[in-house]
Amino acid sequence: MHKSLDDSYALFCGFSEKNAVSWSVMVGGYAKAGDFMNCFRTFKEYLRSGVRPDTYTLPFVIRVCRDTMDLQMGRLIHSVVYKCGLLLDDFVVAALVDMYSKCKVIGDAKQLFDGMPKRDVVTWTVMIGACTECGDPTEALVLFDQMREEGVVPDKVAVVNVVNACAKIGAMHKAKLVHEYIVKNKFSFDVILGTAMVDMYAKCGSVDVAREVFDGLREKNVITWSAMIAAYGYHGQGNKAVDMFPMMLRTGILPNKITFVSLLYACSHSGLVEEGKQLFNSMQKEYGVKPDIKHFTCMVDLLGRAGKIDDSLKLIEDMAVEKDEGLWGALLGACRIHGRVELAEMAAKSLIELQPENAGHYVLLSNIYAKAGKWKDMAKIRELMSHQKLKKVPGWTWIEVDNKIHRFSVGDHTHPLSKEIYEKLKYLLKELEISGYVPDTNFVLHDVDEELKLGNLFSHSEKLAIAFGLISTPEQSTIRIMKNLRVCGDCHTFCKFVSQVTSRVIIVRDANRFHHFKEGACSCKDYW
DNA sequence: CTAGGGTTAG
């Protein structure tokens, strides 16, 4: 397999004097060829040879650690870096930061980064990407500002990383600033930057601006088209997503696996059952793309949401692909919508078997029991959860006001305007109740009495963020919020009423999709 | 002799 490298290695072994260059060519050669074993082996020989590893060789081995997620080896090499006195070297540190971030230990990455008095544009870029990767895009955006303050001029790759941070956090105002920056500094919209921008605007809540950017791009490839199709999907505009497909084909671009995931997702979230079936049936026959578990999951979701749960079961039984938690999750979701309690139990059991530590599965089943009034079963699930010390993932909601991102958790009192927020909420609830809003305590998973439940529900992070948005943004302006979990059923109803009573458009990005609330209705048509 | 960039389910 690595015949040519074997020859190189034989030749290399014959060198009477090996220097840093010949070592690094050999180590790097194995790394590039994906031969990790030999890469590490040669690197160890290198260390033993007494020649000091340098700024050229080390990044190769560190990148192998990143690609194999070998944190242990990564830390070992970090200690070698220290011994070689290369902790201020941009190439080496950038590689280490990248390795730590892919291994999800952002603290180690940041510590290294902070230890450098001067950092080049690549090292900054890697650090910015690391923050986004590890779930702190706010920090990524702060770093972008710091970088410029220190006089480091961002290039296109740096900007793509910032665009990604905006996309991930959904910060529309920041997104526009970054866009202005790109235009002002005359970065050309190549296909990668262009695609990242399409994705950013869509994920910041504006699928129309995403489309404008898309239309303005000179070059588009299958990734660009897939990003646009996916965007229509998660904004609930399935028809537009489906319409893009023939347009894409006409430009001579062929679909890949992800294009079909995006298309099927769009169909399932807009109730386009026939269109979805047709695409699913044609993907292998006409385009040579073999359906994998994700495509099957979309189909289970598509059929299940539409109430065709038995068809969806049939599909699961007949499929020749290994079943995973996502698949059972889709079935469970359908059971939740259509009140199929017994089948839900079966799906939940499969899910819990696969992932006994995932609290979300228990919560979903518990909510299904709650909706069906099966309190005893619900109590059993809760008991199971507390027995295993399973905690729900904490929910957060973000809102961007005055170019600052404000974050709320349930019952949060840490915001400087906390008092005003709760007063607004109280006032708002009175108004909503007059319009017919009834709080739905079924969605509260706590063993507390009704009054406490109400208090809890009242202070969900979504509601706090919306109340804050109402008091801190101009009347009539759109309110955009982002949540890390799925929006709860009561908050969904709440948003509809708020949009009605306050004449505001509210755009909510939750963990799964966008909800556009306007005049008392949601773009998801309650089909989520 | 080196480095950092875009799409996807539940």
TrEMBL record:
It comes from the Eukaryota. GO terms for molecular function: RNA binding; zinc ion binding. This is DYW domain-containing protein. PPR repeats lie at residues 19-53, 120-154, 221-255, 256-291. Keywords: Repeat. Pfam families: DYW_deaminase, E_motif, Eplus_motif, PPR, PPR_2. Residues 436-528 form the DYW domain. Belongs to the PPR family. PCMP-H subfamily. InterPro entries: DYW_dom, E2_motif, E_motif, PPR_At4g14850-like_plant, PPR_rpt, TPR-like_helical_dom_sf. NCBIfam families: PPR. One of its GO terms (biological process) is chloroplast RNA processing. It comes from Solanum verrucosum.
